[in-house]
User: What shape does this take?
Amino acid sequence: MVTAPNKILCRAIGSSQDWRTSTFPFPLGRMNRPRVLSLCAVVLSLSGCGEPDQHPAVGQNFSVKEKAALPTVPDRAGATSLAFSPNSKELATGGPLYDTRDFQHVRPLLLWDVRNRKIVKELQLSTQACSNLAFSPDGKMLAVVARNPNGPDHVELLDSRSGNILSTLRKHTGSIHALAFAPDSKTLITCGSTLLTARGWNRGELKLWDVETRRVRLQRDRPDETLAAAAFTHNGTMLVTGGGSIMDDRVKTGRVTVWDTVTCEELRTCMWNGEIVESIACFRSENRFVTGSMDGIVTIWDASNLKQEFSYNTNANNRNNVRVMSLDVSRDGKTLAVAVGYWIRGGGWGELQLWDVRNRITKSVLLPNHPRPVTCVAFSPDGELLAAGCGDGTVKIWEISALSHTE
Assistant: This one.
């Protein structure tokens, strides 16, 4: 059963609607349990700390109409990450590289033509798989976390047109859990943790890279903490990270921190007894952000004072091990898309929840009772599309611009 965070400590340091959807088959290898790491994070809300809504109000339902749906690819791992290009015309999808049964090479990083639902490029990496990816806002580069099972992860910067690797960033000493570009495309943030020890993640790593020189401009370490999610605020003046600590099965701490982008100094931080924050997303026109945790809790925050505006439990039916896999905020800031689910041997469960941010109610549940978790989700920059990757080998796209609202 999901328990809500308690004892949060804060300190300052300075109608019916019609959706049209399409499905991509995702040609990845089989995996028993893919490692799912999201760039997005969830934000805590309510003007303080407290119990999240266990059974949130349900608003109007969306009717989902399939359009040009392609068949699901069974027994294959779906996209563990995805990102739209700045012009919303292309979608990059990433995942594992090897089939775990016979180690046959498959395609870990694909670039899709969104309109025609076709693969336009198969991008090559130097390692087995990618776990996170992001386009630079100027559209020139694609940054990818290249996973290395035999050593530290690293980041590869690819030319978004040619797909060629421009540079490799190798300063991390362990796993990289998240990355994000600043709005001006001049800075790249990466965060992660050193290798797992008997006590848990023994050091979190935060690095700000100068994109032009490919060098670390600033870095910070967090003892006994994992940094699992990161995002820049809409104007790039602040950076938000999420994570926490796991000392043993009984001591778990969630944490979000707001940093100054120029100095990488900690401005505000909030800690509580609860699960680690694994995903973060910032609103596109204001200093608010949303976070998602391993216990299924979603929270909306005010970045200027780190106060919670609203918090709710995505696991209203009390399923075991439900996590927030990924989340994103629509361009107009009115809708929150939350991918939830869990993996079990041979299957799992998942769904994509849509929330009305202003009225704090559920708009709809897409992909209800999906046989695999919904692993990643993103709104397109132009506000017309919503994409979600699933663990059954598909990527689904809904056309928001085709919505017609009737009372």
The first strand starts at residue 6 and ends at 12. The domain at 15-402 is CATH 2.130.10.10 (Methylamine Dehydrogenase; Chain H). The radius of gyration is 19 Å. Residues 65 and 129 are 33 Å apart (CA to CA).
